Amino acid sequence: MEDHQKNPRLSRRSLISNAALAGVTASAVSSIGLASGCGSVSSRRAPAPTPATPSAAGATESPRKFKLKYAPSLGQFQEHAGKDPLDQIKFMADEGFSAMFDNGLMGKPPELQEKIAKEIARLGMTLGPFVMYADFSKATLVTPDEEIRQQIVNLTKQAVETSKRANAKWALIAPGCCSQRLEWDYQTANLVDNLRRCAEVAEPAGMVIVIEPLNWWADHPGLFLQKIPQAYQICKAVNSPSVKIVDDLYHQQITEGNLIPNIDKAYSEIAAFHLGDNPGRREPGTGEINYKNIFRHLARKGYQGTLCMEHGKSKKGKEGERAVIDAYRACDSFEV
């Protein structure tokens, strides 16, 4: 997984593709190929959270918990916390975050997965979706290819084992490119069939597969799954509690906008969110998305899931990491 600081405008190819392929066995890889409510961070930033201060007894007070489960990724605060993933998770909790995510979890050694799970449990945090499968190079899950179908089922079995070790409920699928040789509706039907086969494995284990629509115009031209209504239709057709949507608000602002109405219309099928402002894919307040209003809306709906901070930073070093935290404090200052 790339350092967010070094790559301020993140590409989904680096965030997901590398992480997903790392979790697949070598044979599977070769066969399957498989105007902002927060204000500008620089000009209208809300006051930073009160620093930890000594109490009368000499103890130190930690920052208050955020209202929602904003989830930093491993590596996002390593300038402050160092490179050890457990130290990074502890830093997140100390800053008031109650969730985190790791796209590359499935590719990590089982021993490390277990250590991450124990630390998250100890701190009372929630682990957001990890990447199970993503392909940005060819049409795969939209085809009726039996070999691909069997391999995605096998990959789901591997993801279930990761889910059990890490106490990770959600596994992400980016279904691949559209086919130039099949009518669109046939591709939809094939994807539904493939996801049903995955659900047969995931559902008994309590794992939820989340499918992610991605934009064509800035990051991923040619991918099949692009819009929230499209993902909603597919989830309804699969008709399983183990196949839902991860709504990436950065991608959907580019693809279709209308973020809150689409959240409402598809809410029954949304299991998680990814975050990032647009343009630039950096922290809230650096672009056009009114994240404070969106977070208020989700809180009023009673949303209890994760909101993965899948974005870069507007500044380098510790200053940039602190700007990210401050941006979320500003957006989290809504009244329910």
Question: SSE layout and pairings?
Answer:
Blueprint (H helix, E strand, L loop, with lengths): L11 H11 L3 H7 L36 E3 L6 H4 L3 H10 L4 E2 L9 H13 L3 E2 L2 E5 L11 H21 L3 E5 L9 H22 L2 E4 L16 H11 L4 E6 H7 L3 H8 L3 E5 L16 H10 L5 E3 L8 H15 L5
Parallel strand pairs: 1-9, 2-3, 4-5, 5-6, 6-7, 7-8, 8-9
Spatial separation of the terminal alpha carbons: 35 Å
CATH C-level name: Alpha Beta
The major β-sheet equals: 7 strands, parallel
Q: What is the number of domains?
A: 1
Can you say what the CATH homologous superfamily is? Divalent-metal-dependent TIM barrel enzymes
Rg, Å, rounded? 19 Å
Please state the average pLDDT score.
Answer: 88
Give the CA-based shape: globular
Q: Which regions have little confidence, pLDDT < 50, spanning 5+ residues? A: 1-9, 16-37, 39-58
Strand content: 5-15%
CATH topology category name: TIM Barrel
**Total number of strands:** 9
Helix content class: 40-55%
Judged by helices, strands and strand pairing, the structural class is: alpha/beta
**N-to-C order of helices and strands:** HHEHHEHEEHEHEHEHHEHEH
Q: How many H/I helical runs?
A: 12
Strand order in the largest sheet: 1-9-8-7-6-5-4
Describe this structure in words.
The protein is an alpha/beta fold and 336 residues long. The protein has one domain: TIM Barrel. Helix content is 41%, strand content 10%. It has twelve helices and nine strands. The chain has helices at residues 12-22, 26-32, 78-81, 85-94, 110-122, 146-166, 184-205, 228-238, 249-255, 259-266, 291-300, 317-331; strands at residues 69-71, 99-100, 126-127, 130-134, 170-174, 208-211, 243-248, 270-274, 306-308. The strands form two sheets. It has a seven-stranded parallel sheet with strand order 1-9-8-7-6-5-4. The chain has a two-stranded parallel sheet with strand order 2-3. Helix 11 (291-300) links the parallel strand 8 (270-274) and strand 9. Helix 4 (85-94) packs parallel to helix 5, helix 6 (146-166) runs parallel beside helix 7 and helix 7 (184-205) crosses helix 8 (228-238).
